[in-house]
Structures are given as C-alpha cells and as structure tokens.
Amino acid sequence: MTTTVEPAAAGQSERKSGLARFARPVLGLIVPVGLALGWELAVRAGLSNGRLVPPPSVIFNTFAELARTGELQRHAAATLARVAAGFGIGVAVGTLLGAITGYSLFLRRLLDPTLQALRAIPSIAWIPLFILWLGIFETSKVVLIAVGVFFPVYLGVMGAVMSVDRKIVEVGRAFRLSGTAMVRRILLPAVLPAYVIALRSGLGLGWMFVVAAEFMGASEGLGYLLVDGQQLGKPAQIVAAIVAFAVIGKTTDWIVAAAAAPFLRWEDRFGARSEET
Amino acid sequence: MLALDRIGKTYANGVRAVDGVSLQVGPGEILAIVGGSGCGKSTLLRAISGLDTPSQGRVVLDDEAIAAPHEKIGIIFQEPRLLPWLTVAGNVGFGLEQRPRKQREELVANALARVGLTEKARMWPRELSGGQAQRVAIARALVPRPRVLLLDEPFSALDAFTRADLQDHLLGLWADTKPTLILVTHDVDEAIVLADRVMVMRSKPGRIFDEIPCDLPRPRDRQSAAFDFAKRRVLAALDRSLSRAATDPVESKTEAGAALWW
Ligand SMILES: Nc1ncnc2c1ncn2[C@@H]1O[C@H](COP(=O)(O)OP(=O)(O)OP(=O)(O)O)[C@@H](O)[C@H]1O
Ligand SMILES: [Mg+2]
Predict the structure, then answer these.
(1) pTM of the entire structure?
(2) Mean pLDDT across chain A
(3) d(CA A64, CA A68)
(4) B36 lines ligand 1 (CB under 6 A)
C-alpha cells in the first residue's frame, strides 16, 4: 500500500517520471503473476493434473461459485464479526492497562510482571481452558482473539506513554495544563503514532487468532472453509479462503492506517518518506 | 518586581547546584546570567519558572510566591520544543486555548508577523530551520504577555549571524510590552547587547560571583569602544569566577551590593 502516508511522500524532492512511478509496483507483481501464469500453463499443457495444487483458473471459479451462492459472504461476515468483537475488547483492555502502567510507576510494578508472565504463554495454549470455561461457541473464540490483540496493544501503549519526551511534557507544564488537558493536548498526540502501529499489529494478531479459534470447531467462518476444504479434499476451496483472508485482512489494516493518516501528517520520521506497509 | 530570597537547590543525587542566591529584578529590566558550565544557571532559572521547586528560599513575583508555573512567567528553552503535531500557528497559540477563537487567531497572526513568519503559519515544525523554530518558540512564549520571560541559552545552537538577528528580534519584541527578561547565556557579546545587568555565577556550589551593571545606550553598537570595555569587564569577572583560587571581587562588592558571602 503506498496510499497510507502520501502527504509526506509527496514532499519528496525528486519527482519520479510517470514511467518510473508506474514501473515500481509492477516490479513487485512479476514474480507472483509469473508463477501463477506458469502453473496455469503447466496444468493446461498436461504436465500436472493440478489436483492438489489447483491452477489459478480453478481457484477463481471456486471463488466465484462461493460468492455466487452467498457462502463466501456468510463465512466472511462470521469471521469478520469475531475479529471485530475480539479486536474491540483487546484494544479497549490493552489501551487502558497500557496507559495506566505507562503513566504510573506503581501500577507498572504492580501489574506488568503478571502481564509479562502471561504474555510468555503461547496464546494458542489457552484454547482448551477457554473451551472448558466458556464453551465451544462464540465467547471462547472472541476471548481468544481478544487475548491475541491485547498484548501488542498493551505493550505498544505502555511503551509509548513511557517514552513521551519529558521536554515536551514540560512545555505543557510551563503552560499550566491541568491533568486532563495534559492528556488531551500533549500525551494523546504524542503517543498516537506508536498507538496506530500497536493497533495494526494487534489487528494482525487478531486475524491470526481467528483462524485458530475457528479451527477449534465452528460451523461458519473462513476458518471453517479451510477445515471443510481439508476434510473433503477441496484444495481450491482452501486457497479461495486463504485469498479471502488476505484480502479482508489487508483491507482492515488499510482502513486503520488510512483513518489515522490525517492525524499523523506532522510526523517527521525516516519511514514517512516512502511508506511501504 | 521579581525577587529571589536565598534560593538553594540540592538535587536528589546530593549535588548542591545553587546556594543562597538572592536577587531582585525590576519590571522591564533585562538581566543576563553568565558563568561556567554546571554552575547552576539552568537550575536557578527552572526554580524561578516554577518547573522545579527550590530546596530553600522563595521566589516572589509582585508579592505572590511562585511555587508552580505561573501565567505571568514565560520560559524559552535552549531547544525550541515546538509540539510537532501542531502547525506553526497552532504552536504560537498554544497558551491561548482559553481565549475566544477570533481573538486567538488575531493574537497569533500579530505575533507571527512580529517575528517575520507570517507565511509559515500553516507549516509543520519539521519544515522550519533552527532559527525559525526558535522564533516560533519566542512568539509562543510572548503571546500570552508574561511579565517575566526566562530564556535558557535560547540562541546557543544557532550560527553567529542568526544569533545576532534573533537578539535584535528579541529586543524588538521586548520593547512591545517591556517584560522582565532573565537570560542565561554563554555568549558575553549577547549578554552585553541585551542586558541592563550581567550576573556572573560560579560553581560548587552555584552562587552569585559578581554583578556588572551595563547601561550603554540602546540600540547598542557591537563595534563601539564602550561595548568592548563592558565586554572586557564581564570576561575578566568570568575568568576570575572560573579560577580555582578565586579571590573576592571586593571592589564590585561595595558597588553592586551583591551577595558574596564566603
Ligand atoms: N536533574 C538533575 N539531577 C541532579 N543533578 C543535576 C540535575 N540537573 C543539574 N544537575 C547538576 O547541578 C549542577 C548545575 O547544573 P545546571 O544545569 O544548573 O548548570 P548550568 O549552569 O545550566 O550549566 P550549563 O551552562 O552547562 O547549561 C551541575 O553540577 C549538574 O550536574
Ligand atoms: Mg544550563
């Protein structure tokens, strides 16, 4: 995605010629498109039957068929709803705990060791316990996703609050900002860039964990399509579901980045020159 | 009238940074503080600003004790410390949040015009040069019309030309409302160009070593003989303050009535 931080990129002095600007994204497409085309041709030429690794045309047909019957939309909506719920909870709790532990040394000493210990547990390991506690339906799935989202958000917010420049805070003090004004006018804007990064890594983990959650037994969702495809020997359906994951995951990430971009135009950092996400 | 009454500061690590500094600065007076590195100049300034509390003594401004940042006291740091997420205009208006929008915009526009940065109003701080950024910081500190403005080596990161330019800018702005200025500097020329009085500090512990009045007519000519003479006096005092076996500058003790008790 080159669209996320374009104002800063536009400030680049050297203007790319039209051709160069066009050629750069195309360069990245050569390998995947080449491989796909090559495989397609290989299957057409009879070099392989393409049963286990379906050629792009078969995947496309499967995708279209799933979309036509509405299956794809139903499963995607179920998965999206789980991610949204888990992400919402994970972000809320992670932001709150991250903010208070970043702000208060006492609370950091009190809470952080426990949270760090919990973080050391591979989150998938919670699945059996969550199923025992919360049943195999939606609650346990959403909680698992929330756990996955929580840690990057918590760590990101805590680190961001702790590393707010003391000199900038002092400017706020010199202008006699009250506690809430200090948070609103100094701390929030100062942590925003790191917060957006934390949200995006949280979201990435949310997408990872929804697959694990749906593997543990679901009757709908893209993860179900994966399991179903495996059990019934339909590799094209598996790849179609994978493609759907990629597209939706990337889109949600882009939405977060794009929503934050107008608030981050001031950023003065190395990566802002040519943001490649 | 700003009065310091036997200000002392001992940091948590036991360093006695400032010891028994008493001082009075009149309204509209410009006081320059010079002294070797680590002699407690910044510490003293931060105590006056209310950002740090002194371990002993009090700061009083117009019969009001200063224990925390006060609206009548503005401060400019060595770095511009602009808020990177606000435009230049947003930074200048930072201390005016309470004012009605119209009034705020007017004050900001005036202040920017005063420092010659009107066309930069909508830019981000990262798009400014060092000197421009420091001008924005000056405008930001002056726009709420403080009665006392503290400056901690405000121009030390700038080249000589820009520095002279900003000194003139500062004097122009000072003339608008005539606040008290207390300026910490390493640059004796700067002290002589700006100040009515130059205070020399010496370290371990940080104390007032000497005070040199400077009543050259304004605007001051950096090339004049009188300027040179004043500069020599300050340099001589600085020299003595830095030598280990410093002798009391007895002659100025009677003259300036400075606090020199050791
Ligand atoms: N936050 C602090 N904690 C402990 N000691 C400090 C602190 N700040 C300054 N000091 C010490 O206090 C003394 C005075 O420091 P200060 O910064 O006031 O000096 P200064 O005159 O401003 O020096 P410079 O001209 O280099 O800026 C120094 O010995 C310094 O090491
Ligand atoms: Mg200093």
Answers:
(1) 0.80
(2) 87
(3) 6
(4) no
